[in-house]
Design brief:
Number of helices: 11
Number of domains: 2
Radius of gyration: 28 Å
Strand content: 5-15%
Shape: elongated
Helix content: 40-55%
Largest sheet: 2 strands, antiparallel
Oligomer: single chain
Distance between the termini: 69 Å
Structural class: mainly alpha
Amino acid sequence: MERYEGLLCPVCHGKMFDDDDIAVCPVCGAPHHRDCFLSLGHCFYADQHGTPQQWKRVEIPRKEEEQVCKKCGAHFEKDAPVCPSCGTPVSEEAPKAGPSVNPFGIPMPQVGNGEIDGVKESEIAVFVGPQYQRYLSVFKKISKTGKKIGWNWVAFFFPEYWLMSRKCYKFGILMSLFSVLTALLTGLSGFNSTQMANLLTASVEEQAAALTSPPFIALYVLMFISLIVHIFMGMFGDYLYKKKVFDGIAHLKEQGLNDTLSYMRAGGVNLFLIFITFFAVEFVTMYCGLIIQSII
């Protein structure tokens, strides 16, 4: 566990203590009082990120007769067998450090200082949010090989919901309209669930005639087109999302919004949009279906 006791908050210049509510910049690791971070809206040292002047922690030298607990970071006497603060034996291995948190208490990405197509991995991770490890790996592969084809199971099965939740609004709306169109054309084909139920109990001759009827052929065509579109999204969904992420980060930088909170607002995942998209598709399909029936 990282300790910041004795360090000064760069915003209010107040000394930090172990029981303070501290927010850590996911890019450079600079600690702030959480209230100070929220009031400022970004890391105090944001303009120095990526430069030689980027904030780095300076370790305060400890006395030779002291030792530091590997688990909680407390300083105590050199000969003590256990940490008086947390009770951890001196010989016990230190646990792996967990992720830092953003001003809202959400674990923040811990990535290296590498870049993908000129964009820092830390910036991509903050923008992507959940599942950033997977997308960083995918983006690196696309950048390295130049191949746009991959595979995303969520984009294959639920393309419109995945796109909208990831805030790819343009393609999300197009896929939602495609779902509405497919449902309407299926209804217009004249084939329905009642006919399917009757077909199961029909004779072999009747089944053969039904399977080669115009409604069934139209249903075949619609299913084939829908499958092709879903396969396309499964194969190219990650590439489309990479373009969305990199364009989004570039747009924020052009506006001078190169800070953590702006990245989180523009990127991340909005699960609420999944429900909105579902009900919107169902409502539009039902409404358009009623209009078509009244005309026909």
